[in-house]
Amino acid sequence: MRLVVVQALAFALFSTLFVRLYYLQVIGGEGYQAQAANQSVRDIVVQPQRGLIVDSQGRPLVANRTSWVVSVDRTLLGKLDADQRTELVRRVAVAVESTPEDVEARLVTCGDPGSVRGTCWNGSPYQPVPVASDVSKDVALRVLEQPEDYPGVLAEQQSVRSYPRPYGINLAHVLGYLSPVTEDEYDLAAERDDRSLNGASVVGRAGVEKQYDEWLRGLPGYRRVAVDSMGRVLGDDSMVESTPGDTLVTSIDAKVQSVVEKQLAARIAYQRTQVDPVTGRKYVADSGAAVVLDAKTGRVVAMASQPTYDPDVWTGGISEAQLAHLYSEKAGTPLLSRATQGQFAPGSTWKPFMTAGALTNGYSMDTTLPCSSGFQVGNRVFKNYESGAYGNIGFAKALEVSCNTFFYRIGFNFWQKFGSDPADVDAKDPLVEEAKEFGFGSRTGIDLPGEAPGRIADRQWKLDYYRSQKDYYCDLSAKPQTAETSDFVYKFAREFCLEGNLYRAGDAVNFSIGQGDTIVTPLQLARAYAALSNGGTLWAPTVAKALVSPDGDVLRRIAPRKVAQVDVPKKYLDYIDSALQNVASVGTMAWKLVGFPLDDVTIRAKTGSAEVYGKQTTGWVASYTKDYVVVMMISQAGTGSGSTGDGIRAIWEALYGVDGETVRPARAATPGTVPPERLPQFLDDGSIMPPLVRKTED
């Protein structure tokens, strides 16, 4: 009986086993086969090549190159015991010249405990995690040839940004840089079903890299690979090719950009060797900017800022020390673009717009006013530069010699006529209105992120500022003066607390010559001078001209965008234009243009020397022809023509091919204004056809 029972049990067990096997292999076989296949196949993201960025002649400004990247497969790493893992991480750290702590930090998934923002891994948990990029080929080969020493460690070539630097240009602030996608950006892309982003993507953070990021980034592909039980890759299963990003064609001319950058850097370096006659100290010349615009369209031909930085510093990841340097005030905050984000008092370059405001509000082209050495307002005498005096003069002569007291009188007269009540916030101010008419106090709309708006220091601004600072200064003045508070600060706090909201005559006369609290960006000033050149049109400056597919098809042409038309009669614009020609030929800029062929290349110019409390003078020159606008400024560098005049001349010589006193068009840096329809020619494979090389005169 016992034997029968055992046999029955054995039969029942085998029957159950056979039934289960039949179910697994026959009834549910296909489903389990699919699950097994999924466990042995993994998807690996193939990053696309980012689109090129080229100048107006097709010269590459940003391209791509291959870089050896070392990655670690965390799936295999997790199957090692603690000692084996520690030893592997140490070995990898030594190979890539890093530290085990840094390698471990890169292996942590973003959002997990211990993750470090900017260092942690933001991609797929099944994808090898990059722990070092731009490693040498020898390191990569060592990893590939010694798999027994580096289990689960991969070395492969990936595409990273490169900077060909035609004519040695930098252009960092215009081009921008890339950094890894953040968790928030990745999650938002997932919500929008945006497949161009994945956890291992890099995105634009500044410049045109950010502005046109969606066009440049392309679409990633996917490689399915077969793996064994240890997670090791056995071979490819299938492949979905990535789609390269589109090419961005810009209005930048690399030849002109090269001249502009070199001249700006040279003028700053030279001014640092010169002595300020007022203080007896050498000029600080701490920063500067230069802008060249197409006067007819607002397109940016060149734009430079100092201090600058090497855009390649972002490739492969930036160190904390390098990032701290870019933001360091001691280093001059190199990451800040002075052309679009720097804000400075415009000084006398402001006067042409004040002339337009005066002529359209009661003054005439025949008006004459005293250009005395000083002009008293209340108990203060506002003086001319070096206390010069020219007698009774008109607007044209006032611009030519840059007479401050002439414009002081205009500002004071308007203040007396419309706003002598300093507490009246709504009082009319023709000069303020004219400044806003020319676009000051608001962003130009350039296709670059982070543009500063500048500031019109009118009555409303002064009231708003008073309200924001009143509590601080009233609290300071209510306490007894301490050793840490100077007499000036203590006195200022008391006066500000009592009447800091009042817009007095001194504010009005300061405004009339571009001093006081009004600030502009070099780009804003260049755009306003372009309006003087082209008959009053305010353009939104543009860097991009077109987007071209990898196949060479023009996807989108980016046309110049008109923002406004200034309400100034043509006769007044022509009058100001004629006066600014005199500035270049016989006025404050003439000494820097001796021998320049002004009959062939008619330059209009205005110099400016803006005084800033506690600092040395900021020097400006704003100039234009009917083709271009050229503006250059250097902070804490002395007078406008003295600090930037030579640089301005050199740029004009390059633009028109000026050789001594002769214009040689064949030597011009750019063959005239490039029309928006003219784009680089592309070959069948999508690469750029080299530009035609023109013979130059001896």
UniProtKB/TrEMBL annotation:
Name the UniProt key words of this record, in alphabetical order.
Answer: Carboxypeptidase, Cell inner membrane, Cell membrane, Cell shape, Cell wall biogenesis/degradation, Hydrolase, Membrane, Peptidoglycan synthesis, Protease, Transmembrane, Transmembrane helix
Does the keyword Hydrolase belong to this entry? yes
Q: Does the keyword Ligase apply?
A: no
Q: What is its main location?
A: membrane
Membrane topology, as annotated, equals:
Single-pass membrane protein
The record places domain Penicillin-binding protein dimerisation at 46-235
GO molecular function annotation: serine-type D-Ala-D-Ala carboxypeptidase activity
Which Pfam families does its entry note?
A: PBP_dimer (PF03717), Transpeptidase (PF00905)
Question: What is the main EC category here?
Answer: hydrolase
Location comes to: Cell membrane; Membrane
Q: What is its EC number?
A: 3.4.16.4
Domain Penicillin-binding protein transpeptidase: where? 288-642
This protein's superkingdom? Bacteria
User: Its family?
Assistant: Belongs to the transpeptidase family.
Q: What is this protein called?
A: Penicillin-binding protein 2
Organism from which the protein derives: Nocardioides baculatus
Species lineage, top-down?
A: Bacteria, Bacillati, Actinomycetota, Actinomycetes, Propionibacteriales
